[in-house]
Write a structure and sequence with these properties.
The chain is mainly alpha-helical. The protein is 16% helix and 5% strand.
């Protein structure tokens, strides 16, 4: 996990043991998230900045905070991935710069080929059959932010930092959380599988 090609927050490169886990084939779509809102569990996203809440149901949901994203994940019977699980899934068992290719245009919507979010599953999948793990929208993980990987868990299923239990809705948490993958308004450099934010 990690990279020697990027910023210090991607270092040191380290080994992490990964137990089997499930990951959604695509980013959560507007249509999927809307069902959670209609069920009274999720709250509507913040629509003050370039959000697609009113947009096409097959676009990824955006402008949801960590608590909203986690509430949806728990509502469908799962949880957000840890940062280690996310990176493992994004790599797809391959050694590419981006999730599924060394060419960002093959696998990602980003600022050179998109002016907004795009429908999920319209670019090439990675080696595990997962779509849009590079580009389209940033994706939340369970982990708290740390400036580097010194002291990071050696087991992928263990989140780094405090993660409370969810009741009906998940709290936003009191700390900064990690999101990964880059988005449609970023340069290709921020779409690399090792980039952290």
């Amino acid at each position: 996990m990690g990279s020697n090609d990027g910023d210090d927050d991607e270092k040191p490169v380290h080994r992490v043991r990964v137990k089997a886990f499930l990951m959604s084939e695509t980013e959560v779509t507007v249509g999927q998230y809307r069902k959670c809102v209609e069920a009274g569990r999720c709250s509507e996203p913040d629509t003050s900045y370039k959000c697609t809440w009113g947009g096409s149901d097959d676009h990824p949901i955006n402008c949801v905070d960590w608590g909203q994203a986690r509430t949806f994940a728990v509502w469908v019977g799962g949880d957000l991935p840890t940062e280690a699980q996310w990176e493992y899934a994004a790599r797809g068992g391959q050694r590419y710069k981006y999730a599924g290719s060394n060419d960002a245009d093959e696998v990602a919507w980003y600022n050179s080929n998109a002016s907004s979010t795009k429908a999920v599953k319209t670019k090439k999948a990675n080696g595990y059959g997962l779509y849009d793990m590079s580009g389209n929208v940033w994706e939340w993980t369970l982990d708290e932010w740390h400036d580097n990987y010194r002291g990071a868990p050696s087991r992928a299923e263990k989140p780094w930092g405090s993660v409370g239990k969810c009741r009906q809705k998940c709290d936003r948490g009191s700390s900064r959380r990690v999101y990964r993958g880059g988005s449609w308004f970023n340069d290709a450099g921020l779409l690399r599988v090792a980039v952290r934010n």
